UniProtKB/TrEMBL annotation:
Official protein name in the record: Kinesin-like protein
Subunit composition and interactions: Interacts (via C-terminus) with NEK5.
Family: Belongs to the TRAFAC class myosin-kinesin ATPase superfamily. Kinesin family. Ungrouped subfamily.
Residue windows of the ARM repeats: 644-686, 685-732
Organism: Linum tenue
Coiled coil segments of this chain: 420-469, 519-595
Listed Low complexity bias regions: 1-11
GO cellular component, as recorded: mitotic spindle; spindle microtubule
One MF term in the entry's GO annotations: microtubule binding
Length: 905
């Protein structure tokens, strides 16, 4: 494709139009203001026949050949005065006629025919300028002069024109054009000036350097002379001076070698290096996101070479060996020239082999003939008929050279260095920008942070002020409402106090009457049953006697005996049943007597105006709530023979009959309520049995009564301390804890809570209660919400706190309260002002105890307990608690400072 070929070669300046050649659509390279130089000849290019290893694509460019006729010199004017010139030029027809004789001549066509009047300027423009422009466009170029010595090769190519500007030759003019076109900041021009003599390359810029070797790039096949001096040219003046120096060196060298300039080849190599920016945008299109990115320019570098050659006189080719003493020299000089001729012949005739490697000249000019360079050849001839043969052969050489086809290729490569430099600069810029932004961002962040902190501080200040105001307001309102409520309560109490007592008395009487009736009835039943039992015992005895008689007589037979046996068994069963019934009745009787006794004593107390005892403690009475009974002795139970009875009751506890068990446990519980019995019960193993019931029994009643009995045994009596420890060692805490978790009936919970509350009063059990979940169980029971349960819980907490405070005072405890550890504080604070007096009192005491130990102060403050303590110290109706609270608050530095902070006096 034309476009891809163009993009690979780089787009030539000026954008020349497409031109079809030999049916193909190869695009010709565009040259500034140049007429097409491609003749209609068939395109000659075969890889085998190539002078150089041409690439796959390029622009065809035939070697252009111009012929220049030198004017007659002074000698010829004289010598050939009578003869006509051997050539006739027809420049307008680009033809040259070489006379054979007076009548006949051969006509040759050239690309340009330059007459003896052609100016140096015109010669340059016609022959060299297109090549120079090509070089500036990035192609290699060659301009070479060929001809017999004295025909004007040096005049055409190398004349410096010191005195006469118009006579300046191609080298000077070419450099002038090159320097005018390149940009000093991005481009560079440098030259080497060499002489090839006897197959040795000498450096005309450094005469000591006289055997420079040709180096061939194995990849591209490009030749170079790394040993040659390469000088950068910045201005025309220095170039002309350089040429003069070169010329002087040439003369000196040739004098030394005893030869003439015309016997050596002079070669000026001009290296032009130009930076260009690719106009094609394949790169950015491939990237696809050019909108985000600065369209990357594609830096290219063009390294082209202009070779200007002033060949040795061509006559040597033909005259080799004719002059004996110069044989070697002629051979060597002619080696290069004849090799050039052979190569051109081979190329012109499309030969398979081109002997490029035969000489140094052909190797150096590898790219100029059959290669990628644009090449112009100027053949110089003289007018003298005396040199007709020489002139003819020169013309033949030119004709053959015209057939050589080159394939022009731009010498362009991607400029990685420049790209990397540019990218580096860009990256540096971006890094700097990034750093700047980062700094700005950090600064902004810091500023915002500072601002936010200021704002927070201000909001906090405002909030604290508002809070303080609100708190004072609440306090006032609270105090007022408490006062009002208390007043209201007092008036209510005054109004309703007597009614309550009357009603209670009535109830009490009814209860006593009904219980007495029941007792009489049960007694009667018991008598009947005792009689029936006696009768059946007699019957059994009778039967036994009779059986003995029968056995003695042995006449009765087995059948009779069996019958009697069965009878006996039935009777035994009956007896057992009766015995059990008797036992149940006995226990019922015991219980009823006990209840009757309790009721009686209750009535007595109510009647005598005694109110409820402030320190409520549970005692068991069929699960009903009853007043404390431990200070009185029951005449009923005292009637009961404890030693015998206990033994029996404990054995009944193991009965298979649930009824019997329930009665037995109730009796045991009643007995345990009496302090006098407690020691004996425990001695007989009653406590163990009760714990066993807790462990074994699903029945709620049994568990409730058993827990009550345990609670009674753990009450603060003579042996309570021992009993409490016994409960602990027998796993009682865990059993109670489990029961607390399972039970739902408030009365069961009340008993369990009572039992635990009692244990809480024991200094030795504190740790155990905590570790076995006693405190948590206690707190867990508040879930039922029943005032009796809450009261027991509060009592337990008060007991516990009291023990802790005692231990703290004695110095045996110094850590934070286990109650606080187990999360009791929120409930304590919540219920510190519970309307039920027993709960309130317990908690008030608990708070005072907790507050006495400084390690608790922090948690108490954050938990809100301080407020309650303050309230207690002001409002508690009990003077002792009030002053205790006040003392406690005053003795704690933490509380004092917090109160100061909150401005509480
Ligand atoms: P060559 O290098 O081919 O041996 P020169 O360039 O040395 O030939 O030319 C020989 C002489 O002829 C020089 O004195 C030169 O000035 C002169 N001469 C050559 N060509 C011309 C020309 N076109 N016009 C005038 N004088 C010329
Ligand atoms: Mg010369």
């Amino acid at each position: 494709m034309a476009s891809s070929a163009a993009s690979r070669n780089g787009a030539p300046r000026g954008g020349g139009g497409a031109r079809s050649l030999a049916g193909g659509n190869l695009r010709s390279s565009s040259y500034k203001s140049r007429p097409s130089q491609l003749p209609g000849s068939t395109l000659r290019r075969s890889s085998t026949g190539s002078f150089a290893a041409a690439g796959d694509d390029g622009v065809p460019g035939r070697v252009r050949v111009a012929v220049r006729l030198r004017p007659r010199n002074a000698e010829e004017m004289v010598a050939d005065a009578d003869f006509a010139d051997c050539v006739e030029v027809q420049p307008e027809l680009k033809r040259l006629k070489l006379r054979k004789n007076n009548w006949d001549s051969d006509t040759y066509e050239f690309d340009e025919v330059l007459t003896e009047f052609a100016s140096q300027k015109r010669v340059y423009e016609v022959v060299a300028k297109p090549v120079v422009e090509s070089v500036l466009d990035g192609y290699n170029g060659t301009v070479m002069a060929y001809g017999q010595t004295g025909t004007g090769k040096t005049f055409t190519v190398g004349h410096l024109g010191d005195g006469d500007t118009a006579s300046r030759g191609i080298m000077v003019r070419a450099m002038e054009d090159i320097l005018a076109d390149v940009a000093p900041e991005t481009d560079s021009v440098s030259v080497s000036y060499l002489q090839l003599y006897m197959e040795a390359i000498q450096d005309l810029l450094d005469p000591t350097n006289d055997n420079i070797s040709i180096v061939e790039d194995p990849k591209t096949g490009d030749v170079s002379l790394p040993g040659a001096t390469l000088l950068e040219i910045r201005d025309q003046q220095s170039f002309v001076e350089l040429l003069s120096i070169g010329e002087a060196h040439r003369i000196a060298a040739n004098t030394k070698l005893n030869t003439e300039s015309s016997r050596s080849h002079a070669i000026l190599m001009v290296h032009v290096k130009r930076s260009v920016v690719s106009q094609d945008d394949t790169l950015s299109i491939e990237n696809g996101n050019s909108s985000h990115f600065v369209k990357p320019l594609r830096p290219l570098i063009r390294k082209s070479k202009l070779v200007l050659v002033d060949l040795a006189g061509s006559e040597r080719v033909h005259k080799s060996g004719s002059e004996g003493h110069m044989l070697e020299e002629a051979k060597s000089i002619n080696l290069s020239l004849s090799a050039l001729g052979k190569c051109i012949n081979a190329l012109a005739e499309n030969c398979a082999h081109v002997p490029v490697r035969d000489s140094k000249l052909t190797r150096l000019l590898k790219d100029s003939f059959g290669g990628t360079a644009r090449t112009s050849l100027i053949v110089t001839i003289g007018p003298s008929p005396r040199h007709r043969g020489e002139t003819a052969s020169t013309i033949q050489f030119g004709q053959r050279a015209m057939k050589v086809e080159n394939m022009l290729k731009i010498k362009e490569e991607f400029d990685y260095k420049s790209l990397s430099r540019k990218l580096e600069i860009q990256v540096d810029k971006l890094i700097a920008e990034n750093e700047r932004q980062q700094k700005a961002y950090e600064y902004e962040l810091e500023r915002m942070n500072q601002e936010a902190q200021n704002r927070i501080a201000e909001v906090e200040r405002n909030f604290a002020e508002a809070l303080e105001k609100e708190r004072l307001k609440c306090q006032m309102e609270y105090m007022e409402s408490v006062k009002k409520l208390e007043e209201k309560m007092l008036t209510n109490q005054r109004k309703h106090g007597s009614d309550g007592i009357i009603r209670n008395e009535c109830n009490g009487e009814d209860q006593v009457v009904s219980v007495s009736d029941e007792v009489a009835e049960v007694r009667k039943l018991l008598q009947n049953e005792t009689q029936r039992r006696k009768a059946s015992e007699e019957e059994v005895n009778k039967l036994n006697t009779r059986m003995g008689q029968l056995m003695q007589s042995e006449a009765g037979g087995d059948g009779e005996i069996l019958r009697i046996h069965q009878l006996l068994e039935v009777e035994t069963q009956k007896k057992k049943k009766l015995e059990e019934e008797v036992m149940i009745l006995k226990s019922q009787l015991l219980q009823l007597s006990y209840e009757a006794d309790q009721s009686r004593r209750y009535m007595e107390r109510v009647g005598s105006g005694n109110g409820l005892n402030g320190t409520d403690s549970p005692s068991v009475n069929n699960g009903e709530k009853a007043p404390n009974s431990r200070h009185t002795t029951s005449n009923c139970s005292s009637k009961f023979d404890l030693a015998v009875g206990l033994h029996q009751i404990l054995s009944y506890l193991e009965s298979e009959d649930a009824n019997v068990q329930i009665h037995a446990v109730k009796v045991l519980a009643n007995l345990a309520a009496e302090e006098a019995n407690q020691e004996k019960i425990v001695e007989a193993g009653g406590l163990t049995s009760l714990l066993m019931l807790l462990r074994k029994f699903e029945d709620e009643t049994v568990r409730r009564v058993a827990a009550g009995a345990i609670a009674n045994l753990a009450m603060n009596g003579k042996s309570s301390q021992t009993n409490q420890e016994l409960i602990m060692t027998q796993g009682g805490i865990t059993l109670l804890t489990m029961t607390a978790a399972d039970a739902e009936d408030p009365q069961t919970l009340r008993m369990v809570a009572g039992a635990i509350a009692n244990l809480c009063g024991n200094d030795k059990l504190q740790m155990k209660l905590k570790s076995e979940g006693g405190i948590k169980a206690l707190l867990g029971m508040v879930r039922c919400g029943h005032a009796d349960v809450l009261s027991q819980v509060a009592r337990g907490i008060a007991n516990f706190a009291k023990c802790e405070s005692r231990a703290a005072t004695q110095g045996t405890k110094n850590g934070r309260s286990l109650l606080i550890d187990d999360g009791a504080l929120p409930w304590i604070v919540q219920n510190a002002n519970n309307e039920a007096a027993p709960i309130r009192r317990h908690i008030e005491l608990a708070l005072c105890h907790l507050a006495q130990h400084e390690v608790n102060a922090k948690e108490m403050i954050s938990g809100g307990a301080l407020w309650e303590l303050v309230r207690i110290s002001h409002d508690c109706s009990r003077e002792d608690i009030r002053s205790l609270a006040r003392r406690t608050l005053n003795s704690s530095p933490t509380f004092r400072s917090e109160m100061r902070r909150l401005r509480i006096d």
